[in-house]
Amino acid sequence: MVEQQILITIATLAVTLAGFSGVVGIFSKEISDVKSYKLETLLFQSGVALFASLTALIASQVGGGLKSEEEFREFWIISSWIYISITVIALIFATIDIIRKESYKKINYNILFYFSFFIVIALLIFNALYVQDAYLFHIALEINLAFAFVSFYTLVMPPKG
């Protein structure tokens, strides 16, 4: 099943990004507050993509796989709602952390972080209610990974100037 291969690939990429960011964090002599925050958002985004893809992958194996078109649609509805739940939980923890550290006073990076999650949630709601297929689920996962990759890139690149 192609959907399962895509989920495995996304989970692998999410773990790889998180692993490399951990290496960057360990080998940085002194990590600034900005880099620490970027590392944290990278871990949030890649963690959400990892758990959403693994949850869907494991659930697709229950009962011997998806045998009919109706089961296929129902599976992606349930998977989309589970992904939404994972995303909302991640947003709650991120928001608590942002409020505790008072980093909401510097909105620039936070806007992209929340915007990417809101796009993911909107895609998943649309998928659960109307489309009921794998491709929007995979696009949502890719959005999480894309933001994680951008965070990783800005984390490892030396500051200009």
Describe this structure in words.
The chain is mostly helical and about 160 residues long. The protein has one domain (about 1-20, about 40-155). It contains five helices and no strands. The N and C termini lie far apart (about 50 Å).
Specify the structural class. Answer: mainly alpha
Pick out the low-confidence regions.
none
Beta-strand level of the residues, as a percent range? Answer: under 5%
Secondary-structure element string:
HHHHH
Instruction: Average the pLDDT over all residues and give the rounded result.
Output: 85
Beta strand count: 0
Domain unit count: 1
Helix content: over 70%
**Structure annotation, total helices:** 5
Let me know the largest β-sheet. Answer: none
What best-fitting shape do the alpha-carbon axes yield?
elongated
Distance between the termini: 49 Å
Report Rg. 17 Å
Q: Which secondary structure elements does this structure contain, and how are they paired or packed?
A:
Elements: H1 2-27, H2 33-61, H3 69-101, H4 108-131, H5 134-156
Helix pairs in contact: 1-2, 1-5, 2-3, 2-5, 3-4, 4-5
Key features of this structure:
161 residues; mainly alpha
